[in-house]
Design goal:
about 325 residues, alpha/beta, 434 Repressor (Amino-terminal Domain), Rossmann fold, 3 domains, six-stranded parallel beta sheet, six-stranded mixed beta sheet, 13 helices, 12 strands, elongated, LacI family transcriptional regulator, transcription cis-regulatory region binding, transcription regulation, DNA-binding, DNA-binding transcription factor activity
Length: about 325
């Protein structure tokens, strides 16, 4: 008589990895039912809680690697809160991630953060994975396509909030980019009468567009006609700023309005290499305490991460209108 491999005792099956087919045979059900239990979709398949518990028990007994989705079946809520993060390359996003984790844990939530490098496909994949892990809330920070994420989350019954960049399909918390930019440009124009040069960011990006609008408004208040060549929206990367300044040519302006501390790295490198004796002053939108010590940096705009996350967690509790947008004032830090 041939021995049925599905009925082998645990001592013999321990030599090989247990599969969902083994678990299906032991539970007296189908492999697809086992898969649904282990990936957290068993309720949608109308699988009974009793069978789900049986499969989980067998999986643990057989040494099957049960993933996080399965473990949350034993609780009514997962207590998972996710955050999609575009970059970790400056203090602003680093501060958001750190404070988000602290606040989430203080509420008894488990924070999951993933970096998606401003790639819309990676952003969507991250949202889909978080939903599969039964995340109860997702915060899309600086997402390039926030509405795609929000629509998916809503269809899955998961609450989402946009942070840093706004969307139309979920409530948003953003900085007052227009006001912060206008105030920085005003301060710089008060110090130097000539027009400033704006450098960094992407013109299609909401935050950059608002900062350019504030930059233009400050010049218009003083009756300064600002040419298109005064805006170098060349991207955020430091090397792009260096290339844009090199391609621009001509004399340096009285002041450089730098649209990110990431861009600031490239601007400073270019100045030190090509114009070390320049008297051009620098203002930056974003705050870095080390960069603030540079002799040519006269002012920086700090985005108020604490207040922004206050609003995010308030919205998590409030279930607000998806069209809601909250603009948090920035902090202008000028050298005395």
């Amino acid at each position: 008589m041939t021995e049925d491999p599905m009925s082998e005792p645990a001592s013999r099956t321990s030599a090989r990895r247990t599969t969902i087919y083994d678990l299906a045979a032991l539970a007296g059900t189908s492999a697809s039912a086992v898969s649904a239990v282990l990936n957290g979709t068993w309720k949608k398949r109308r699988i009974s809680a009793r069978l789900a518990e049986k499969i989980l028990h067998l999986a643990a007994e057989q040494g099957y690697s049960v993933n996080l989705q399965a473990s949350v079946l034993r609780r009514e809520k997962s207590n998972i809160i996710g955050m999609i993060m575009p970059k970790y390359d400056n203090r602003y996003f680093g501060a958001i991630a750190e404070e988000f984790e602290i606040r989430a844990r203080a509420r008894g939530l488990f924070p999951v953060i993933t970096c998606t490098r401003r790639d819309p496909d990676l952003e969507f994949e991250a949202a889909r994975e978080m939903v599969s892990y039964q995340a109860e809330h997702i915060v899309a920070t600086g997402a390039t396509d926030p509405d795609r994420i929000a629509d998916f989350c809503r269809a899955a019954g998961v609450a989402s909030i946009n942070l840093d960049l706004p969307g139309a399909a979920a409530p948003s918390v953003v900085s007052d980019n227009f006001g912060g930019s206008r105030d920085l440009a005003r301060l710089m124009l008060n110090r130097r009468r000539g027009p400033l040069l704006f450098i960094g960011g992407r013109p299609t990006d909401h935050n950059t567009a608002e900062r350019i609008r504030g930059f233009r408004a400050a010049h218009a208040e003083r009756g300064i006609d600002l040419p298109e060549s005064a805006i170098l929206a060349c991207g955020y990367a430091a090397e792009k700023a260096e290339r844009a300044l090199a391609a621009r040519g001509g004399p340096l302006p009285a002041g450089l309005f730098v649209n990110s501390t990431i861009t600031l790295e490239g601007v400073v490198r270019w100045l030190r290499r090509t114009a070390p004796d320049s008297t051009t002053e620098i203002g930056a939108f974003d705050w870095d305490p080390f960069a603030a010590l540079l002799s040519d940096v006269v002012a920086m705009v700090e985005q108020d991460v604490t207040r922004m996350l206050d609003e995010v967690f308030r919205l998590i509790d409030a279930a607000p209108d998806p069209a809601l947008r909250i603009e948090v004032p920035t902090i202008l830090r000028a050298r005395p």
